[in-house]
What does this fold into?
Amino acid sequence: MKYVFIEKHQAEFSIKAMCRVLHVARSGWYAWRQRRHQINRRQQFRLVCDDAVRQTFAKAKQRYGAPRLADELPEYNIKTIAASLRRQGCGRKPRAGSARSVTVSMVCQYPRIC
It folds into this structure.
C-alpha cells in the first residue's frame, strides 16, 4: 500500500523523501515497480489449472463437478479444481430428468388443505 502511495505522488514529492517518511527502502520500491506487472508462479499455476479444468469441463458437457474432474485430472487436487470452478463461475448442469406430475390425491383426501 505504501508503494502505491509513492507511485501516485511521485510527481509531487521526491521518491527519496517519501521512502524516508514512510520507512521503506528505496531499493524495495524500485524492485516492486519492476515486478508488479510480472506474473508470479502461483498466478501462472492458476492460469494453467483454469485452462485444463475449463477444457475438461467442456469435454464432459458441463456435467462433471469437482470430484469427477479430479478423477480426470489427477495432477490437480480436488480443492484446487473446486476453487478453479468457483473462480470461473462454472457449475455443473443438472441431469435431465423426467417431468413430475402433480397428484391431486391429497386434495381429495384432505379438503382443508385447499
User: Anything to note?
Assistant: Residues 2-35 form one domain. Residues 50 and 84 are 6 Å apart (CA to CA). The chain is about 60% helix and 0% strand. The helical segments are 2-8, 15-22, 26-35, 41-59, 66-72, 78-88, 105-109.
